[in-house]
Structures are given as structure tokens and as C-alpha cells.
Design brief:
The structure holds two protein chains of two kinds.
Chain A (H helix, E strand, L loop, with lengths): L19 E20 L11 H6 L6 E9 L3 E6 L12 H19 L3 E6 L3 E10 L2 H13 L9 H6 L8 E6 L6 H9 L4 E7 L2 H4 L6 E7 L5 E6 L1 H23 L6 E3 L5 H10 L2
Parallel strand pairs in A: 3-4, 3-6, 6-7, 7-10
Antiparallel strand pairs in A: 1-2, 4-5, 8-9
Chain B lengths: L5 E2 L13 H4 L6 E3 L9 H25 L2 E3 L2 E8 L2 E7 L18 H11 L3 H15 L4 E7 L3 E8 L2 H10 L11 H10 L10 E7 L7 H14 L1 E8 L18 H10 L5 E6 L2 H14 L3 E8 L2 E2 L1 H19 L8
The chains are: A alpha/beta, B alpha/beta.
Chain lengths: 283, 338
């Protein structure tokens, strides 16, 4: 709830749709975004008559200024609540996701966009679904619900189901996950989101990216498949740990880059300004 | 040597499958992590982890095994010794608590001897026990039995090659004072009977240590003679001659009335070897014991009952060591990802 979580998103391309909003749109309408002139006959709107252009017109027609209006875009956030999101003490990664969702609710309200939320693990989680809404209170409530949600199921099979209402639509989509073991699903999902603008929010807890400081035997159990990994922690292994994390990040980046997507990496705590900057720098 | 193993409480072995648990358990003490797949492989860590799990499995197995109390079952072993089967038949009568002549008695004037003896001389039974103890200790190959007698016979130690038991038996003779009666006849009969039903595996000796004799009646004499003949037992009599006590070798018909001389003469009529040693001072006694030691030195075969040996103590120690190792290793285990 901290104000530092607040951010603003920006949609890079012009959005379709006629409903007014905050984003540069494609539809003609009331706006200051001049496109062209049309004859008064074609666009019978005498308020927009451009006298100077009409006088210059060789055919002597009355010309009207045409501008594009600013439109809204539906915003979706898909939140991964699989077992691996329950990792982290005292802040779970899902708590970070909740911080993000709460801030997103305020951002969407500020932009006037309807926000829908849904959560998935192995299947879609129907109890964690919010229909498109412009009410910030509902989103705040949803965020609180996320904080108490259980992360029990392994797998991300529900991602496709959660995406189904979005398929082929133009929207701003936030994919909130740690992107562990999303392989087949992720590609399918990105295919389905061909027209949408996708912003992956990659949540990695500092205690998973940074090896513990002490030397010794570290026994790790995978949260999702229960496999065991035993490491004798030492400086050399710590170096390999960090390089494995960097390698993973590079691979994920490459994968998104192939689709012209830039991921936002988020750690504890969530800094809204960083996300704003990400959108300002963004393509 | 039989090397089989038996269990006192084999039902506990049913818990043995518990030992697999550490090899199976995956989540014990492990810290949850979102995706171990992206961490580097560490062969060293895997080896250490595996070793710890094998150690825990072994520790559980050892505890279960110790609960089942394994051991080597009771068995018989054939042993070969050199030497004899010696039954120490020691007089426990009150007269044995008297003193012998002191070592330097030859230099004393005849008038002093009596007083000197009563004040300075070593106690007969003590000297005898000490020397017999040394005798037993010097002859590890012999098998000894120990009996004391006064009015009746006390068989203290059965035939055994375990020196410490024999020594303890000899020491036990020193507890408290003796009784007044001395019945050599009954003592000899019951001592000879102890050789009965034993395989004849080497020379047999009764070493009678006594300071007095007895007149034996005809029945007793017959029984003793028959017993010695049947069991082929040699008799050595160490006669602890006190001051003023009769000499065994006194000649003459009249000395037949003296019990010691009568006994000596009867022993001489026995069909088996007999020797008498008169010991007046500790030196004489030592010489006599020495002489007996020289007499008997033949190989001897015998079977020994080896009692059940319990191994569980060793196994518990092993289990403790394993658990201690695991506890020490636990110090090196990281408990959190911080």
C-alpha cells in the first residue's frame, strides 16, 4: 500500500476502440491529434471547419479538421499462484505480486481503463477472478485476497484457460509470475496474445537469486516437483549459482525479445518508479 | 570356531525396514526452493548428502540390530593344554590359622623357637594360599579346581583354565577363620568323585594342603583306594608341619597311633602315585610347590564351554558414533537461505 508502489503504464502503440480513455487511439474523434482534412460534406461537423485550409483548397470546398481521439484499453493481469510463488520469507513472492496488483489497480483507475484479474496454477483459480471493473476498491480487496491465497498446486496449465477471454483481443496484459518451468504453456500463451501488449512481470525473490552467505551443506527441495538438490556451498559454487541465475535471465529475455516483449524484473521490495521507467523506456 | 550369530530378541528385527527411511525421505530438513532445476549441479554436495543419508540409515540399522541383541551362541571349543588337571584340596580347619616357623628358625635357640613361631611365623593358610596362587599363575596350561575342607568339603571352583576364577577361589579361602573339625577322608572321597564322568585327557592330581592327619576307618580307606584307582589320580600331600608336630617318616609300630603318620602310611599303599612334602617353613612350602610343578607336564585335550557372547554393546557404540557423526555434520548444514 506504500505510495512507492505506484506506477503509470503506457501503451506504446495506438489503441483501437471508441471508448475514450488515456491512450493514443486510432479512432477519429475529439482530440488534439490532427490527422487530415475532410470535406464538410463527408464530415458534417461545422465546429471543426478549418478556414485557412478551406481558403487554400483549389476546389473551393469547405474543409473540416479530423483528429484522433484518446481511447481506453482493457487491462488484464494474470497472476501465477502456483506453489513456487509461495516461496520467500517473510514476504512471499505472491505478496510482492499483491503489492503490484494493488498498485496496478490505482494505475488503471488513474488511466480510466477497466482492469480484470485472474489467477492460475495448474488450472484457473475461479475464486481469484475479477471481471473487468473500474472500481479501485475491488482491486484492493483482490490484492488482500491474494495475500492470503494458498500456493499449493504445481504447474501452470491454467495459464491458457485464464487467457481464453483475451485471445486475439487488443489489451494491455500483465503476466505476473516467476516464470519457473513455463515452457510449452508460455509459448502458446504468447501466441494467443498476439494482438495484446504483454508486459511480463518476473518476480524473483532475493533469497532465490542470491546464495546464502554461510558455507556448508544446503539441502533444497523443489516446491513444485519435490526433487531434492544438495549443494556444498562454497565460494566457487556461489559464483556458479549467480551465473546460473544470470543465464536464466538471459534465456528468458531472449525468449521475450523474439516477440518484441521486454520483461520487467521485480524483486523485494516492488519499486513502482522502476516500472514506470520501464514503460517510459519501453518500445 | 563357530561363527554363527543368534538374536535374543529377533522380533525387533521387524523394525529393520525403518533403516530405508533416510534413503527415501526427500523433504526432511530440506529448505523449500522454487525451482532447483536452475541451480548448478554439485557433485560434492550430492556425495555428501548421500553419505549422510547412508550414515543415518546405518545408524538406524545399528540401533535396531542392537535392540535385537545379536551374539555368538553358546558353543563348545576343543582346547589343547599342556599340563595336568589339578584339584587343590586345601585344609580350612582352625589349625591352619596357626603360624609356621619363621624363615630364620635354624639360627634361633631352641628356647626361643616356640615364642618366635607364635609371634613371627607366617600364618599357614595365608602362606599356602599365596604360594598356591603363584603356582596357579605360573602354570597357565593346567586346569585347576579348588576345594576347601574342614568338617565337610566345599567345592569352590570347578575345573577351569581361567586363572582369575581359580585365583578368586583361592583368595576366598581366606575369608574368616576356620572350623575346628578336619575330615580328610570325606574330603578325599568327594574330591576324587569330581573327576568322575570327565574324559581322561591328561594326568590328574589332587594337591592336598593340610597340616594334620586323621585316622581313617576301613570303609573310608576302601572307598578312597577304589576312587583313586578308578580315576587314576595322583596324590600330592603338602604337609604343613607346625612346630612340635610329628614327622611323617617316624619309624616304628608305635607311631602308627599318630594320625598324620597313619595317614601317610595309608597313602603309600595307594595304587596311584603318591608323594608327600613336609613343609615346616614358607621356604619348604615353596620348594614343595615347585616340585609338584616339575612333576606334571603332559599335553591335555579338553572341551570348553564358551558362554554366549553378546555383541549388542559394540553395536550400540557403533550407533552412538554414527549418531554423533550425524550431529556433528548437522552443524554444517545451512538452516535457511539467508
Amino acid at each position: 500500500m506504500s505510495p512507492t508502489h505506484d506506477f503509470h503504464y503506457r501503451v506504446g502503440a495506438r489503441v483501437g476502440g471508441f471508448r475514450p480513455g488515456a491512450h493514443a487511439g486510432l479512432a477519429f474523434g475529439a482530440g488534439d491529434d490532427f490527422v487530415t482534412h475532410a470535406t464538410l460534406f463527408a464530415r458534417p461537423d461545422p465546429r471543426r471547419i478549418d478556414l485557412r485550409a478551406s481558403l487554400r483548397d483549389p476546389r473551393g470546398e469547405w474543409l473540416v479538421r479530423l483528429a484522433r481521439q484518446r481511447s481506453h484499453i482493457p487491462v488484464f493481469a494474470l497472476i501465477d499462484v502456483s506453489a513456487s510463488m509461495g516461496f520467500g520469507t517473510p514476504t512471499r513472492k505472491l505478496d510482492l505480486a499483491a503489492d503490484f496488483v494493488a498498485a496496478l489497480g490505482r494505475a488503471a483507475t488513474a488511466a480510466g481503463d477497466p482492469l480484470s484479474l485472474s489467477a492460475f496454477d495448474d488450472a484457473e483459480r475461479p475464486e481469484l477472478r475479477l471481471a473487468p471493473s473500474r472500481q479501485p476498491a475491488l482491486v484492493a480487496q483482490y490484492a488482500e485476497q491474494l495475500r492470503t491465497a494458498e500456493c499449493r498446486s504445481a504447474g501452470h496449465g491454467g495459464l491458457i484457460d485464464a487467457l481464453a477471454p483475451l485471445a486475439g483481443r487488443q489489451a494491455q496484459v500483465f503476466l505476473v509470475s516467476d516464470f519457473h518451468r513455463h515452457d510449452a504453456e508460455l509459448d502458446t500463451a504468447l501466441d494467443l496474445l498476439g494482438r495484446a501488449r504483454v508486459t511480463p512481470i518476473v518476480i524473483w525473490s532475493p533469497s532465490e537469486t542470491e546464495p546464502p552467505a554461510g558455507d556448508g551443506l544446503l539441502r533444497l527441495r523443489d516446491l513444485e516437483n519435490g526433487r531434492l538438490r544438495e549443494l556444498w556451498l562454497r565460494p566457487e559454487l556461489r559464483r556458479r549459482w549467480r551465473s546460473a541465475v544470470a543465464e536464466r535471465r538471459r534465456a528468458l529475455d531472449l525468449r521475450f525479445q523474439a516477440r518484441g516483449i521486454r520483461a520487467f524484473y521485480m524483486s523485494d521490495p516492488f519499486v513502482g518508479d522502476a516500472l514506470t521507467r520501464h514503460f517510459l523506456e519501453g518500445a | 570356531m563357530i561363527t554363527e550369530v543368534d538374536f535374543l530378541r529377533p522380533a525387533w528385527l521387524a523394525l529393520m525396514p525403518l533403516a530405508i527411511l533416510p534413503l527415501w525421505a526427500r523433504s526432511t530438513e530440506a529448505i523449500a526452493y522454487p525451482d532447483v532445476g536452475w541451480l548448478p549441479e554439485d557433485r560434492l554436495g550430492r556425495l555428501i548428502g548421500l553419505a549422510l543419508r547412508v550414515l543415518s540409515a546405518l545408524a538406524i540399522a545399528a540401533v535396531v540390530l542392537a535392540l535385537a541383541a545379536p551374539g555368538r551362541p553358546q558353543s563348545m571349543a576343543l582346547r589343547t593344554g599342556r599340563g595336568a588337571e589339578v584339584l587343590l584340596l586345601i585344609d580350612r580347619s582352625r589349625s591352619m590359622d596357626e603360624r609356621m616357623l619363621p624363615s630364620d628358625w635354624r639360627e634361633l635357640s631352641p628356647y626361643d623357637i616356640r615364642h618366635q613361631t607364635e609371634s613371627r611365623g607366617p600364618v599357614k593358610s595365608q602362606a599356602a594360599r599365596k604360594l598356591l596362587g603363584e603356582f596357579v599363575a605360573r602354570r597357565p596350561d593346567d586346569r585347576f579346581a579348588v576345594s576347601f575342607f574342614s568338617a565337610s568339603t566345599l567345592h569352590v571352583v570347578p575345573f577351569t583354565q581361567h586363572d582369575e576364577v581359580v585365583q578368586a577361589g583361592i583368595t576366598a579361602g581366606g575369608v574368616h577363620r576356620g572350623l575346628s573339625e578336619t575330615d580328610v577322608g570325606r574330603a578325599l572321597i568327594s574330591s576324587v568323585a569330581r573327576f568322575e564322568n570327565r574324559a581322561y585327557t591328561g594326568s590328574r592330581i589332587i594337591l592336598l594342603v593340610s597340616d594334620g592327619g586323621a585316622r581313617l576307618d576301613e570303609d573310608t580307606r576302601l572307598a578312597i583306594r577304589a576312587g583313586f584307582e578308578r580315576q587314576r589320580v595322583a596324590l600330592y600331600w603338602i604337609y604343613l608341619k607346625g612346630f612340635g608336630r610329628p614327622d611323617l617318616e617316624q619309624a616304628g609300630e608305635a607311631s602308627e597311633a599318630i594320625p598324620e603318620v597313619a595317614l601317610h602310611r595309608f597313602f603309600e599303599t595307594l595304587p596311584t602315585p603318591y608323594r608327600a612334602y613336609q613343609a615346616e617353613s614358607p621356604e619348604d612350602l615353596a620348594a614343595a610347590v615347585e616340585d609338584v610343578g616339575r612333576q606334571q607336564n603332559h599335553p591335555l585335550d579338553f572341551e570348553e564351554l564358551i558362554p554366549r557372547q553378546d555383541y549388542s554393546r559394540h553395536i550400540i557404540v557403533t550407533a552412538l558414533l554414527l549418531v554423533a557423526t550425524l550431529l556433528a555434520a548437522g552443524r554444517w548444514q545451512l538452516r535457511s537461505l539467508r
